[in-house]
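Q: Sequence in, structure out?
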Amino acid sequence: MGKIYYLEIATLDISNRKDLISDKDDIMDNYFKFSDIRSLPLLQKEIYQTIDENPDVSYYELALKYGFDLKRFYK
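A: Exactly. Output:
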């Protein structure tokens, strides 16, 4: 339940609806700090080395390389 709760809080915060968040202490600077490797550069570097990929390549370029066209999400 904790992850769902913070996902809800993040959605409200990012949507500028802080008025709907009852406990203002739950508002964070980075909701995805521990679930997105872009927020953890050392882990990101280790993962990219393990899979033998260039860490400077965008997620979009990596997706295309492996056959996933993410363009549809940006329309």
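The chain is about 40% helix and 0% strand.
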